[in-house]
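Next up, a chain.

===
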Amino acid sequence: MRMTSESEILKQSDLADGKGGTVRTFDAVPREVRVTARDVNVFYGPKQALTDISIDVPSKAVTAFIGPSGCGKSTFLRCLNRMNDTIEGARVTGKIELDGRDIYDPDLDVVELRARVGMVFQKPNPFPKSIFENVAYGPRIHGLARGRAELEEIVVSSLKKASLFEEVKDRLHEPGTGLSGGQQQRLCIARAIAVSPEVILMDEPCSALDPIATAKIEELIDELKRNFTIVIVTHSMQQAARVSQRTAFFHLGILVEEGPTEQIFTNPREKRTQDYITGRFG
């Protein structure tokens, strides 16, 4: 297969055909499309929050959503695991597919969907349970472990993947709420990982953390992308540049531009993207 040159990548729209195609990254590595959105609109009552959003999210890569406050990036993130279903008056139109399956199909099990598409929120939200029980909760309710030994294996493995096990291995039965902010956020990531999701959504996961904890989360994201598809909402353009392979810029409920991260930050196609990145607004 001929590999696309960097200059060719910069010129193309970078959207696949929406039928299980590939997205090409800046380094010309073809990636399988894991999530496809086409013409997605979101309404909160009579107010339209998102207009005609179409994007492909590649597998085993980090896609960052950037844009000023209120631009719709978190609203769209919540569409990807139907969290907007919990908001009264919210309505979503268009199509979003995970591995080719419409996630808004009435026959789809939403609980199963949210196991496949995990969520890490802006503020760490560990359950008022032990560290062990925080991670064990999902596998237990989804029946993923056949016994105590298997459950313990999942918990340890998840904590290791979240780069937390060495810090908490001697206090697994102490409350998760007793950890530092950065540790709590990694605990929440371990909790999401424990049910073996395909996609992990992160809504500004570092905004409440100090720089050291933020660096640890960013290192963790870099590790996790080897096995998971990650979508992150961030207000920090520096963070988007550091952790993501693709970036999507939202403004006033519209997806202005998306593509390889390096292209978005060095050679954007749209003037609005350029203005936001250079600090002219936002």
